[in-house]
Amino acid sequence: MANEIGAGARLRVVAIDGPVASGKTVIGKAVAERLDWPMLDTGIMYRALTWAAIERGLLPDPTAADPAALVRLAEAVDLSVGHPPAGSPETASIAVDGADATPHLRSKAVEAAVSVVASVPGVRERMVEQQQEMAREGEMVMVGRDIGTVVAQEALVKIYLHASDAVRARRRAEQMRASGRRVTDDEVLNDLRNRDAIDQGRATAPLRRAVGAEDVNTSGDDLETAIERVLAIVRRALCESAAPDGRSA
Ligand code: C5P
After folding, report:
1. For residues 185 and 69, what is the distance between their CA atoms, to the nearest angstrom?
2. Cβ(42) to ligand 1 under 6 A?
3. Ligand 1 centroid to 144 CA: how many Å?
4. What is the dihedral of CA 169, 207, 75, 53, to 10 degrees?
5. If DSSP codes are grouped into helix, strand and coil, which group holds residue 77?
6. pLDDT digit string, tens, across residues 125-134
7. Does the Cβ of 131 fall within 6 Å of ligand 1?
C-alpha cells in the first residue's frame, strides 16, 4: 500500500513542499547539490502524465477529464526519470513509454491541466507508489506538494516553503519570460491562484504544511539567502540524526 512507508524508521529524505513558485525546485536543487544527494522533483511526473493524456486525446479540455481513463493511463504507462539534457532548465528528463516528455513539461496546455490530473486519487496512488520506491533507494531531496504529508512521512527533515502571491507571481513571470513565453503578470497570478486552489482544495493529499515541517517564508529573501536558510535547517537535522544520544535516525 502506498502509505506504509510512513510507519518505519526515518528516511534519509529532505522533503520540500509548497505552493506554485515558492522556490521549491531551485532551492531543492541547490540543497541536493550541496549535500551531493540526488533530487526528485515529483511535479515532473504529474506533468509528464498530463502531457501523455493530452497526446492520447484524454484531455480535450481539463474540465472534461475522465478520471477513470486517467487512472488507467497512470497504471499502464512506464515513467522513466533520467538526467536532464545539456542546457535544459529542467532538473531531470522524463519519458513516458520511451517518448521524451521533457520539452513539453511547461507547455500552456500541461500547465492548465496538471492540477486537475493530480487531483484524481487513483493517479496519485500510482505516482506515490513510484515515488516511495525511489525514496527507498537511499538519500534523496524530494520536492512536491505531498512529500512530507504522504510520500515520505518519516523524512529526516521537512520544509514547507512559501511566499506571498505577489512575490511568487513575479518570480514565475520572470522564469516564463526568460524561457521565451509571452505572459502578462495578471495571467501568471491567475494561473498560480487557480492551481493553488485546486492543490489545496482537493480531497486526496491536499497541499498543506506537514506535521513537524519547518515553515520557511521566502518573500523577503534573495535566492542565496533562502537556500542558506533551508540548508541550515537541513544540516541541523542531519547533525541531530547522527548524534549518539538516542535521537539518531
Ligand atoms: O511543482 P509543479 O508546479 O511542477 O507541479 C505541477 C502540479 O503537479 C502541481 O500544481 C500539483 O497539482 C501537482 N503535484 C502534486 N503533488 C506533487 C507534485 C506536484 O499534486 N507531489
Report:
1. 34
2. yes
3. 6
4. -30
5. coil
6. 999 999 999 9
7. no
92, three cell numbers: 531531470
Which residue's C-alpha cell is 537535522? 237
**Radius of gyration (C-alpha) of the chain in whole angstroms:** 18
> Which atom, in ligand 1's list, is nearest to the CA of 151?
21
Predicted confidence (pLDDT) at residue 113 exceeds the cutoff of 70: yes
Contacts 24+ apart (CB under 8 A), 180-183: 181/106
Q: State yes or no: pLDDT of 1 exceeds 50.
A: no
Q: C-alpha grid cell for residue 47?
A: 506533468
Nearest Cα to 74, choosing from 122, 13, 138?
A: 122
pLDDT at 247 over 70: no
| Distance from C-alpha of 114 to C-alpha of 133, rounded to nearest angstrom | 22
Choosing from 124, 145, 168, 208 the residue with most ligand 1 atoms within 8 A of its CB, the one to mutate for a pocket test is 145
Tens-place pLDDT, residues 146-189: 999 999 999 999 999 999 999 999 999 998 898 888 899 899 99
Q: For the stretch 4-31, what's the b/e string if a residue is b when 16 or more beta carbons lie within 10 angstroms of its beta carbon? A: ebeeeeebbbbbbbbbbbbbbbbbbbbb
Per cent of the chain over pLDDT 70 is: 94
Q: Is 115 in the pocket of ligand 1 (CB under 6 A)?
A: yes
Nearest residue CA, atom 21 of ligand 1?
144
- pLDDT range class, residue 36, cuts 50, 70, 90: very high
Task: Give the closest residue to 204 by CA, choosing from 162, 129, 150.
Answer: 150
